[in-house]
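Q: Structure tokens for this one, please.
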Amino acid sequence: MADSTWWWLLAGALVGAELLTGTFYLLMLALGAAGGAIAAHLGLPLTGQIVVAAVLGAAAVAGWYLHSRRRPGDPSVRGLRSVNLDVGEVIQIEQWNADGTATVKYRGAAWTVIQRPGNAPAPGAYRVTELVGNRLLVEKA
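A: Here is the predicted structure, written as tokens:
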């Protein structure tokens, strides 16, 4: 078999493994193997094919890693109104405890309230932005 055939088989196996595992990095390595196959079609010796495949695969992995690190993550499901109907509701806080929490009566039960870091605790109206465990995370309304 020709060298290019081996490279195409390797690329196909990597794509198949990516489909089974969902690891997107395997797809980037498959790009490297495809580069090795193209290098074989162009007549480069085996050493050149390996270098092309390694450089292209490593560049694709590094590029995808940098791209995914720079992109903001998905918003927390805990803060979506479609998932949690408490998000967006306004509650009244009478006083804050020394540890930065408050206890409020909400929906017929006592809830512990925390607020986003960097805000000074002051009595008043607050809007629920997220549920963290069994505590309400709030911000000034």
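A few notes: Residues 86 and 128 are 7 Å apart (CA to CA). The mean pLDDT is 89.
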